[in-house]
Design brief:
Elements lengths: L3 H11 L9 E13 L6 E15 L2 E6 L7 E6 L2 E6 L2 E6 L11 E11 L3 E13 L2 E13 L1 H7 L11 H5 L3 E4 L9 E8 L6 E13 L3 E13 L3 E13 L9 H8 L3 E3 L2 E7 L4 E13 L2 E12 L4 E12 L9 H10 E13 L2 E15 L2 E10 L2 E14 L4 E10 L7 H11 L5 E4 L2 E5 L1
Antiparallel strand pairs: 1-2, 1-7, 2-3, 2-4, 4-5, 5-6, 7-8, 8-9, 9-10, 9-11, 10-12, 11-12, 12-13, 13-14, 14-15, 14-16, 15-17, 16-17, 17-18, 18-19, 19-20, 20-21, 21-22, 22-23, 23-24, 24-26, 25-26
Protein backbone atom coordinates (compact mmCIF):
# COMPACT_ATOMS: atom_id res chain seq x y z
CA UNK A 1 0.00 0.00 0.00
CA UNK A 2 2.87 2.40 0.53
CA UNK A 3 3.27 2.55 -3.24
CA UNK A 4 0.73 5.37 -3.04
CA UNK A 5 3.41 7.56 -1.48
CA UNK A 6 5.32 7.85 -4.74
CA UNK A 7 2.28 9.40 -6.43
CA UNK A 8 2.38 12.05 -3.75
CA UNK A 9 6.09 12.53 -4.34
CA UNK A 10 5.57 13.05 -8.07
CA UNK A 11 2.79 15.52 -7.40
CA UNK A 12 5.15 17.51 -5.16
CA UNK A 13 8.02 17.40 -7.63
CA UNK A 14 6.01 18.50 -10.63
CA UNK A 15 3.21 20.72 -9.34
CA UNK A 16 4.16 21.40 -5.71
CA UNK A 17 0.56 21.45 -4.59
CA UNK A 18 -0.61 23.89 -7.28
CA UNK A 19 -3.71 21.83 -8.06
CA UNK A 20 -5.34 22.92 -4.82
CA UNK A 21 -5.28 26.61 -5.84
CA UNK A 22 -5.35 26.77 -9.64
CA UNK A 23 -6.21 24.98 -12.85
CA UNK A 24 -3.12 23.21 -14.08
CA UNK A 25 -2.49 20.28 -16.40
CA UNK A 26 0.79 18.53 -17.15
CA UNK A 27 1.81 16.03 -19.84
CA UNK A 28 5.45 15.06 -19.40
CA UNK A 29 7.60 12.36 -21.05
CA UNK A 30 10.55 11.65 -18.75
CA UNK A 31 13.82 9.97 -19.70
CA UNK A 32 15.08 10.24 -16.14
CA UNK A 33 14.01 12.06 -13.00
CA UNK A 34 16.28 11.63 -10.00
CA UNK A 35 15.88 13.31 -6.64
CA UNK A 36 18.37 12.93 -3.77
CA UNK A 37 17.70 14.94 -0.61
CA UNK A 38 20.75 17.09 0.26
CA UNK A 39 22.42 16.32 3.63
CA UNK A 40 21.01 19.47 5.30
CA UNK A 41 17.89 19.77 3.16
CA UNK A 42 19.34 22.62 1.10
CA UNK A 43 21.24 22.45 -2.20
CA UNK A 44 21.42 20.44 -5.39
CA UNK A 45 18.98 17.54 -5.32
CA UNK A 46 19.18 15.76 -8.67
CA UNK A 47 18.19 16.13 -12.30
CA UNK A 48 15.29 16.02 -14.73
CA UNK A 49 15.84 14.79 -18.30
CA UNK A 50 12.72 14.77 -20.47
CA UNK A 51 11.66 14.35 -24.10
CA UNK A 52 8.78 16.79 -24.14
CA UNK A 53 6.56 18.70 -21.75
CA UNK A 54 3.16 20.34 -22.00
CA UNK A 55 2.01 22.54 -19.10
CA UNK A 56 -1.23 24.55 -19.06
CA UNK A 57 -1.43 26.81 -16.01
CA UNK A 58 -4.72 28.76 -16.03
CA UNK A 59 -4.54 29.15 -19.81
CA UNK A 60 -0.84 29.99 -19.92
CA UNK A 61 0.62 27.20 -22.04
CA UNK A 62 4.21 25.94 -22.05
CA UNK A 63 4.94 23.39 -24.78
CA UNK A 64 8.55 22.14 -25.04
CA UNK A 65 10.18 19.55 -27.26
CA UNK A 66 13.52 18.97 -25.60
CA UNK A 67 15.58 18.66 -28.78
CA UNK A 68 19.29 18.05 -28.09
CA UNK A 69 18.47 18.11 -24.33
CA UNK A 70 18.56 21.93 -24.17
CA UNK A 71 16.01 21.95 -21.35
CA UNK A 72 17.49 19.27 -19.12
CA UNK A 73 17.33 20.57 -15.55
CA UNK A 74 19.23 20.44 -12.32
CA UNK A 75 16.97 20.28 -9.25
CA UNK A 76 17.54 22.59 -6.29
CA UNK A 77 15.64 22.47 -2.99
CA UNK A 78 15.13 24.30 0.25
CA UNK A 79 12.58 23.18 2.90
CA UNK A 80 9.96 25.53 1.37
CA UNK A 81 11.14 25.70 -2.26
CA UNK A 82 11.60 23.39 -5.24
CA UNK A 83 13.65 24.85 -8.12
CA UNK A 84 14.88 23.82 -11.56
CA UNK A 85 17.98 25.23 -13.31
CA UNK A 86 18.29 25.02 -17.12
CA UNK A 87 20.52 26.56 -19.81
CA UNK A 88 17.79 29.15 -20.41
CA UNK A 89 17.03 30.22 -16.84
CA UNK A 90 15.58 29.10 -13.55
CA UNK A 91 12.05 28.45 -12.33
CA UNK A 92 10.53 27.00 -9.19
CA UNK A 93 7.60 26.48 -6.83
CA UNK A 94 6.94 27.34 -3.22
CA UNK A 95 6.44 24.35 -0.90
CA UNK A 96 4.60 24.02 2.35
CA UNK A 97 6.84 23.32 5.36
CA UNK A 98 5.12 19.93 5.84
CA UNK A 99 5.54 18.94 2.19
CA UNK A 100 6.05 15.22 1.67
CA UNK A 101 9.09 16.13 -0.43
CA UNK A 102 10.97 16.89 2.79
CA UNK A 103 10.39 13.29 3.97
CA UNK A 104 11.84 11.69 0.82
CA UNK A 105 15.46 10.57 0.85
CA UNK A 106 15.56 9.39 -2.76
CA UNK A 107 13.21 8.91 -5.69
CA UNK A 108 13.84 8.05 -9.34
CA UNK A 109 11.80 7.61 -12.52
CA UNK A 110 13.19 6.10 -15.73
CA UNK A 111 11.53 6.18 -19.17
CA UNK A 112 8.20 7.35 -17.78
CA UNK A 113 5.08 9.24 -18.78
CA UNK A 114 3.11 11.56 -16.48
CA UNK A 115 -0.31 13.07 -17.14
CA UNK A 116 -1.66 15.22 -14.32
CA UNK A 117 -4.77 17.42 -14.32
CA UNK A 118 -7.98 18.06 -12.40
CA UNK A 119 -9.37 14.64 -13.38
CA UNK A 120 -6.45 12.25 -13.17
CA UNK A 121 -2.95 11.34 -12.17
CA UNK A 122 -1.68 8.88 -14.76
CA UNK A 123 1.90 7.68 -14.31
CA UNK A 124 3.54 4.83 -16.20
CA UNK A 125 7.15 3.87 -16.49
CA UNK A 126 9.92 1.39 -17.01
CA UNK A 127 11.27 1.84 -13.48
CA UNK A 128 10.52 3.72 -10.29
CA UNK A 129 12.56 3.77 -7.06
CA UNK A 130 11.61 5.46 -3.82
CA UNK A 131 13.22 5.64 -0.38
CA UNK A 132 12.49 7.45 2.84
CA UNK A 133 13.94 6.69 6.31
CA UNK A 134 11.81 3.56 6.89
CA UNK A 135 10.57 2.56 3.42
CA UNK A 136 12.02 1.38 0.11
CA UNK A 137 9.87 0.75 -2.99
CA UNK A 138 10.85 -0.46 -6.45
CA UNK A 139 8.43 -0.73 -9.39
CA UNK A 140 9.14 -1.91 -12.92
CA UNK A 141 6.98 -1.86 -16.07
CA UNK A 142 4.06 -0.27 -14.26
CA UNK A 143 1.10 2.05 -14.73
CA UNK A 144 -0.58 3.87 -11.86
CA UNK A 145 -3.84 5.71 -12.48
CA UNK A 146 -5.77 7.87 -10.00
CA UNK A 147 -9.07 9.49 -10.84
CA UNK A 148 -10.62 12.53 -9.18
CA UNK A 149 -13.71 12.01 -7.09
CA UNK A 150 -15.75 14.18 -9.47
CA UNK A 151 -14.62 12.20 -12.53
CA UNK A 152 -15.23 8.90 -10.74
CA UNK A 153 -18.72 10.03 -9.71
CA UNK A 154 -19.51 11.06 -13.28
CA UNK A 155 -18.26 7.75 -14.68
CA UNK A 156 -20.51 5.91 -12.25
CA UNK A 157 -23.51 8.19 -13.03
CA UNK A 158 -24.07 9.00 -9.37
CA UNK A 159 -24.75 12.66 -10.06
CA UNK A 160 -22.50 13.73 -7.17
CA UNK A 161 -19.65 16.20 -7.43
CA UNK A 162 -16.37 16.49 -5.61
CA UNK A 163 -15.58 19.50 -3.47
CA UNK A 164 -11.86 18.84 -3.53
CA UNK A 165 -9.11 18.86 -6.12
CA UNK A 166 -6.64 17.03 -3.89
CA UNK A 167 -5.54 14.35 -6.37
CA UNK A 168 -3.55 12.39 -3.82
CA UNK A 169 -6.53 12.12 -1.48
CA UNK A 170 -8.50 11.01 -4.55
CA UNK A 171 -6.03 8.16 -5.08
CA UNK A 172 -7.32 6.53 -1.90
CA UNK A 173 -10.81 6.40 -3.44
CA UNK A 174 -9.94 5.51 -7.05
CA UNK A 175 -6.57 3.99 -7.91
CA UNK A 176 -5.42 1.26 -10.26
CA UNK A 177 -1.91 -0.19 -10.44
CA UNK A 178 -1.11 -2.70 -13.18
CA UNK A 179 1.48 -3.61 -15.79
CA UNK A 180 0.10 -1.78 -18.82
CA UNK A 181 3.25 0.30 -19.26
CA UNK A 182 3.71 -1.34 -22.66
CA UNK A 183 1.50 -3.46 -24.98
CA UNK A 184 1.16 -7.12 -23.95
CA UNK A 185 2.85 -6.46 -20.60
CA UNK A 186 0.70 -8.28 -18.05
CA UNK A 187 2.46 -7.55 -14.76
CA UNK A 188 4.07 -4.73 -12.87
CA UNK A 189 6.86 -5.96 -10.59
CA UNK A 190 6.90 -4.61 -7.05
CA UNK A 191 9.51 -4.80 -4.28
CA UNK A 192 8.89 -3.25 -0.87
CA UNK A 193 11.06 -3.08 2.24
CA UNK A 194 9.88 -1.42 5.42
CA UNK A 195 10.63 -1.08 9.13
CA UNK A 196 7.82 -0.67 11.65
CA UNK A 197 8.51 2.52 13.61
CA UNK A 198 7.10 1.07 16.86
CA UNK A 199 8.16 -2.59 16.89
CA UNK A 200 11.24 -2.33 14.67
CA UNK A 201 10.02 -5.35 12.67
CA UNK A 202 11.42 -5.58 9.14
CA UNK A 203 9.23 -6.65 6.23
CA UNK A 204 10.22 -7.49 2.66
CA UNK A 205 7.55 -7.99 -0.03
CA UNK A 206 8.14 -8.98 -3.65
CA UNK A 207 5.48 -9.81 -6.22
CA UNK A 208 4.23 -9.50 -9.77
CA UNK A 209 1.13 -7.32 -9.71
CA UNK A 210 -1.56 -8.13 -12.25
CA UNK A 211 -3.78 -5.46 -10.73
CA UNK A 212 -4.23 -3.54 -7.49
CA UNK A 213 -7.45 -1.51 -7.32
CA UNK A 214 -8.51 0.90 -4.60
CA UNK A 215 -12.08 2.09 -4.74
CA UNK A 216 -14.22 4.07 -2.31
CA UNK A 217 -15.15 1.10 -0.10
CA UNK A 218 -13.14 -1.80 -1.50
CA UNK A 219 -9.65 -3.10 -2.32
CA UNK A 220 -9.10 -5.75 -5.03
CA UNK A 221 -5.73 -7.30 -5.79
CA UNK A 222 -4.27 -10.02 -7.97
CA UNK A 223 -0.63 -11.05 -7.49
CA UNK A 224 1.67 -13.77 -8.81
CA UNK A 225 4.97 -15.15 -7.52
CA UNK A 226 4.67 -13.48 -4.15
CA UNK A 227 7.41 -13.60 -1.51
CA UNK A 228 7.14 -12.12 1.99
CA UNK A 229 9.99 -12.07 4.52
CA UNK A 230 9.60 -10.98 8.13
CA UNK A 231 12.73 -10.16 10.15
CA UNK A 232 14.81 -12.49 7.93
CA UNK A 233 13.35 -15.45 9.82
CA UNK A 234 9.80 -16.02 8.55
CA UNK A 235 9.24 -16.59 4.81
CA UNK A 236 6.05 -16.95 2.78
CA UNK A 237 6.08 -17.99 -0.89
CA UNK A 238 2.81 -18.12 -2.84
CA UNK A 239 1.79 -18.62 -6.45
CA UNK A 240 -1.42 -16.85 -7.50
CA UNK A 241 -3.03 -14.60 -4.87
CA UNK A 242 -6.45 -13.02 -5.47
CA UNK A 243 -8.15 -11.08 -2.72
CA UNK A 244 -10.95 -8.62 -2.08
CA UNK A 245 -11.51 -6.68 1.12
CA UNK A 246 -13.32 -3.67 2.54
CA UNK A 247 -11.82 -0.18 2.78
CA UNK A 248 -12.73 2.79 4.96
CA UNK A 249 -14.43 5.18 2.54
CA UNK A 250 -13.10 8.18 4.52
CA UNK A 251 -9.46 7.14 4.09
CA UNK A 252 -7.51 10.16 2.79
CA UNK A 253 -3.97 9.39 3.98
CA UNK A 254 -1.66 6.45 4.57
CA UNK A 255 -2.99 4.89 7.80
CA UNK A 256 -2.02 1.19 7.85
CA UNK A 257 -3.84 0.39 11.07
CA UNK A 258 -7.08 1.73 9.58
CA UNK A 259 -6.46 -0.09 6.27
CA UNK A 260 -5.74 -3.41 8.00
CA UNK A 261 -8.69 -3.13 10.38
CA UNK A 262 -11.21 -2.54 7.59
CA UNK A 263 -9.69 -5.18 5.30
CA UNK A 264 -9.51 -7.96 7.89
CA UNK A 265 -13.15 -7.56 8.90
CA UNK A 266 -14.58 -8.07 5.42
CA UNK A 267 -12.21 -10.19 3.38
CA UNK A 268 -12.05 -12.91 0.74
CA UNK A 269 -8.94 -14.74 -0.43
CA UNK A 270 -9.28 -17.11 -3.37
CA UNK A 271 -7.44 -20.38 -4.02
CA UNK A 272 -3.72 -20.20 -3.25
CA UNK A 273 -0.83 -22.61 -2.84
CA UNK A 274 1.83 -21.39 -0.45
CA UNK A 275 4.85 -22.38 1.60
CA UNK A 276 5.53 -20.90 5.05
CA UNK A 277 9.07 -21.31 6.40
CA UNK A 278 9.98 -20.49 10.01
CA UNK A 279 13.77 -20.41 10.35
CA UNK A 280 13.59 -19.95 14.13
CA UNK A 281 11.41 -23.02 14.69
CA UNK A 282 13.08 -24.76 11.71
CA UNK A 283 9.71 -25.78 10.33
CA UNK A 284 7.91 -25.64 6.98
CA UNK A 285 4.16 -25.49 6.38
CA UNK A 286 3.02 -26.26 2.82
CA UNK A 287 -0.65 -25.60 2.15
CA UNK A 288 -3.21 -25.83 -0.61
CA UNK A 289 -5.84 -23.30 0.46
CA UNK A 290 -9.29 -23.23 -1.11
CA UNK A 291 -10.46 -19.93 0.39
CA UNK A 292 -10.69 -17.66 3.43
CA UNK A 293 -13.74 -15.44 3.94
CA UNK A 294 -14.56 -13.01 6.73
CA UNK A 295 -18.09 -11.64 6.83
CA UNK A 296 -20.50 -10.51 9.54
CA UNK A 297 -17.95 -11.24 12.31
CA UNK A 298 -17.51 -14.87 11.22
CA UNK A 299 -14.29 -16.38 9.82
CA UNK A 300 -14.67 -19.18 7.22
CA UNK A 301 -11.56 -21.18 6.30
CA UNK A 302 -11.25 -24.09 3.85
CA UNK A 303 -7.98 -25.99 3.36
CA UNK A 304 -7.70 -28.75 0.77
CA UNK A 305 -4.56 -30.15 2.36
CA UNK A 306 -1.43 -29.11 4.21
CA UNK A 307 1.72 -30.48 5.81
CA UNK A 308 3.76 -29.17 8.74
CA UNK A 309 7.31 -30.52 8.90
CA UNK A 310 10.33 -30.08 11.15
CA UNK A 311 13.37 -32.21 11.99
CA UNK A 312 11.36 -34.43 14.35
CA UNK A 313 8.06 -35.13 12.62
CA UNK A 314 5.62 -34.34 9.83
CA UNK A 315 1.93 -33.64 10.35
CA UNK A 316 -0.36 -33.76 7.34
CA UNK A 317 -3.91 -32.42 7.18
CA UNK A 318 -6.66 -32.95 4.62
CA UNK A 319 -10.04 -31.35 3.96
CA UNK A 320 -10.05 -28.82 6.78
CA UNK A 321 -13.16 -26.68 7.40
CA UNK A 322 -13.36 -23.96 10.03
CA UNK A 323 -15.79 -21.25 10.97
CA UNK A 324 -15.53 -19.24 14.13
CA UNK A 325 -16.24 -15.87 15.64
CA UNK A 326 -14.11 -12.92 14.47
CA UNK A 327 -14.29 -9.85 16.71
CA UNK A 328 -13.83 -6.48 15.00
CA UNK A 329 -10.57 -5.74 16.85
CA UNK A 330 -9.07 -9.21 16.35
CA UNK A 331 -5.92 -9.16 14.21
CA UNK A 332 -6.20 -12.06 11.77
CA UNK A 333 -2.40 -12.10 11.47
CA UNK A 334 -2.06 -12.95 15.20
CA UNK A 335 -2.76 -16.66 15.80
CA UNK A 336 -3.42 -16.26 19.52
CA UNK A 337 -6.08 -13.62 18.88
CA UNK A 338 -7.80 -15.84 16.30
CA UNK A 339 -7.78 -18.79 18.71
CA UNK A 340 -9.21 -16.61 21.48
CA UNK A 341 -12.24 -15.95 19.29
CA UNK A 342 -12.51 -19.53 18.07
CA UNK A 343 -12.51 -21.00 21.58
CA UNK A 344 -15.36 -18.64 22.41
CA UNK A 345 -17.34 -19.96 19.42
CA UNK A 346 -16.01 -22.24 16.74
CA UNK A 347 -16.80 -25.23 14.54
CA UNK A 348 -13.95 -27.28 13.07
CA UNK A 349 -13.79 -30.45 10.97
CA UNK A 350 -10.95 -32.32 9.32
CA UNK A 351 -10.92 -35.51 7.24
CA UNK A 352 -7.59 -36.76 8.58
CA UNK A 353 -4.59 -35.77 10.67
CA UNK A 354 -1.53 -37.98 10.25
CA UNK A 355 1.72 -37.77 12.23
CA UNK A 356 4.97 -39.49 11.26
CA UNK A 357 8.64 -39.50 12.23
CA UNK A 358 11.50 -39.87 9.74
CA UNK A 359 13.11 -42.64 11.82
CA UNK A 360 9.89 -44.44 12.76
CA UNK A 361 7.76 -46.38 10.27
CA UNK A 362 4.77 -46.24 12.62
CA UNK A 363 2.30 -43.48 11.75
CA UNK A 364 -0.47 -42.20 14.00
CA UNK A 365 -3.63 -40.78 12.54
CA UNK A 366 -7.08 -39.52 13.43
CA UNK A 367 -9.92 -39.40 10.90
CA UNK A 368 -13.26 -37.62 10.55
CA UNK A 369 -12.53 -35.15 13.31
CA UNK A 370 -15.25 -32.75 14.43
CA UNK A 371 -14.65 -30.13 17.12
CA UNK A 372 -17.00 -27.52 18.53
CA UNK A 373 -16.33 -24.91 21.17
CA UNK A 374 -18.87 -22.62 22.84
CA UNK A 375 -17.80 -20.35 25.67
CA UNK A 376 -14.63 -22.49 26.03
CA UNK A 377 -16.64 -25.70 26.52
CA UNK A 378 -15.21 -28.29 24.11
CA UNK A 379 -16.65 -31.35 22.39
CA UNK A 380 -14.32 -33.31 20.09
CA UNK A 381 -15.04 -36.45 18.09
CA UNK A 382 -12.76 -38.57 15.92
CA UNK A 383 -12.25 -42.03 14.49
CA UNK A 384 -9.18 -43.64 16.05
CA UNK A 385 -7.58 -47.03 16.59
CA UNK A 386 -8.51 -48.15 20.10
CA UNK A 387 -7.86 -51.62 21.53
CA UNK A 388 -7.35 -52.90 18.01
CA UNK A 389 -10.58 -51.40 16.77
CA UNK A 390 -11.24 -48.35 14.58
CA UNK A 391 -14.10 -46.61 16.33
CA UNK A 392 -15.59 -43.26 17.25
CA UNK A 393 -14.12 -41.50 20.27
CA UNK A 394 -15.75 -38.51 21.96
CA UNK A 395 -13.97 -36.11 24.30
CA UNK A 396 -15.60 -33.52 26.55
CA UNK A 397 -13.63 -30.79 28.23
CA UNK A 398 -12.68 -27.17 28.54
CA UNK A 399 -10.23 -25.22 26.40
CA UNK A 400 -8.25 -22.16 27.50
CA UNK A 401 -5.62 -20.03 25.85
CA UNK A 402 -2.45 -18.83 27.54
CA UNK A 403 -1.52 -15.95 25.26
CA UNK A 404 1.63 -15.05 27.19
CA UNK A 405 3.08 -18.56 26.81
CA UNK A 406 1.40 -19.12 23.42
CA UNK A 407 -0.24 -22.35 24.58
CA UNK A 408 -3.64 -23.91 23.92
CA UNK A 409 -4.66 -25.96 26.98
CA UNK A 410 -7.37 -28.64 26.86
CA UNK A 411 -8.61 -30.14 30.12
CA UNK A 412 -10.48 -33.42 29.49
CA UNK A 413 -13.45 -33.93 31.82
CA UNK A 414 -15.28 -36.92 30.28
CA UNK A 415 -15.12 -39.40 27.40
CA UNK A 416 -17.12 -41.87 25.34
CA UNK A 417 -14.94 -44.75 24.17
CA UNK A 418 -15.61 -48.00 22.25
CA UNK A 419 -17.04 -51.00 24.07
CA UNK A 420 -19.02 -48.76 26.40
CA UNK A 421 -15.93 -47.49 28.23
CA UNK A 422 -15.86 -44.10 29.95
CA UNK A 423 -12.36 -43.56 31.26
CA UNK A 424 -10.41 -40.31 31.04
CA UNK A 425 -7.24 -42.05 32.29
CA UNK A 426 -7.45 -44.73 29.60
CA UNK A 427 -7.98 -42.14 26.89
CA UNK A 428 -5.02 -40.07 28.05
CA UNK A 429 -2.83 -43.20 28.09
CA UNK A 430 -3.63 -43.95 24.43
CA UNK A 431 -3.22 -40.31 23.39
CA UNK A 432 0.14 -40.09 25.12
CA UNK A 433 1.27 -43.28 23.44
CA UNK A 434 0.15 -42.31 19.91
CA UNK A 435 0.55 -38.56 19.62
CA UNK A 436 4.12 -38.00 18.48
CA UNK A 437 4.28 -34.28 17.84
CA UNK A 438 6.90 -32.35 19.81
CA UNK A 439 4.40 -29.49 20.14
CA UNK A 440 1.92 -31.56 22.17
CA UNK A 441 2.46 -32.59 25.79
CA UNK A 442 0.10 -34.60 28.04
CA UNK A 443 0.01 -34.62 31.83
CA UNK A 444 -2.82 -36.38 33.71
CA UNK A 445 -5.99 -35.10 31.99
CA UNK A 446 -4.41 -31.93 30.52
CA UNK A 447 -3.27 -31.60 26.88
CA UNK A 448 -0.98 -28.63 26.16
CA UNK A 449 -0.39 -27.55 22.57
CA UNK A 450 2.47 -25.15 21.83
CA UNK A 451 1.57 -22.52 19.23
Amino acid sequence: MKILMFALAINSLISAGALAESKISIDLSIDKLQFQKPPKGVGRAGLLIFKNAYVNNNGIVLNINNVNNFFDSQIFVRPTFLGFTTQFGNYGFALEEQSVLNAINFTELINSKLVLDDNQLNLSGEAFNFMNPDTSIKLNTFRLYCQSLAAAATSLDTGTESTTNDMIANCFSFLTLNGSFAPNNEFATLQYEGIDKISGDKTYFQSKVRTLDLRKTQINASFSGTKIVSNDSYFINANEVNLTCAKDEDLKEMDFDKIKKACLNQFKLGPVKASLIDKVAKSTFNLDLKDITIKDKILYFTLNNGSLSDANSTTTLSNVLLNCKKETDTDLLELTQVLRDCTSFGRFSIAEVKNSKPDDKKDSSLKNIAISSTNNALIAQAEAKFLGLTARVTIYGNVTLNEAKRQLIITVTDTKLPLGLNSVKLLMYFLKKNLISKDISISNNVITIAL
